[in-house]
């Protein structure tokens, strides 16, 4: 058994131990309080950061929508511009056709005037007839226009021989026509003369008051009538549409843009390639970064111009249901004829 002194010492030891435990407990309480304060501060800071991130996310989505609207408006403007260019080309084509018809009408009128002018000669085997021819040829090289025509051959056949120096213009014209005809008749001419007045009458036009159609008998090469010329022009005009070029092909590079960065680009490409049209062939493709994690699809296609309209393909196939589930807009990057 312990005596009183030992008991007293044991009590003092226990009291000292309790004091130490109280200090330890206070220390732990202080540490737990600090940890609790730190946790509360971290949660508040985290919530603040999260709120800021959500705000930035909403701003980013608003910018995406604005960007998409601007791209869509730009695509619409480009489509309207292409339609205007097509209409302008159609108007230019109509103007060219009208100018061609006008030119043909002017040429037909000019040819008629020339024929009428050439048909006014008569009695070219006489001095009076040669005098009228000489006066007509003053300042001219040919009867009609600036080159040899059937009018020259017709009048040449009516003149029996080269006019004398008294008719310098007619003599010069006679030499020019003879030089043109010489290569066509390489043989040596012995010369032919007509006796009396009946022969010249057969070779020359009738009298000035005779119908102009009688001059056709003087054309050694078979002159055309006005009806023949008109029929020939109609045949030529009928042949021209047949010469229309075959339908060409074009190579087109398209930009296909998604709605946002969450769009499945693989599905988007499959949707694009699922469109099948006569004269349409899809080619190589690649994904091109745009920004904010968004990528666009660039894809090549080959089209037959008369079978496929790029505008119609974009407006009626690519940007409508079901394709518009993935596709926000389409733009033409390059358009080249093959």
Automatic annotation (TrEMBL):
Residues 227-246 have a biased composition (Basic and acidic residues). Residues 211-226 have a biased composition (Acidic residues). Residues 191-246 are annotated as: Disordered. The keyword ATP-binding does not apply. EF-1-beta and EF-1-delta stimulate the exchange of GDP bound to EF-1-alpha to GTP. Belongs to the EF-1-beta/EF-1-delta family. This is Putative translation elongation factor EF1B/ribosomal protein S6.
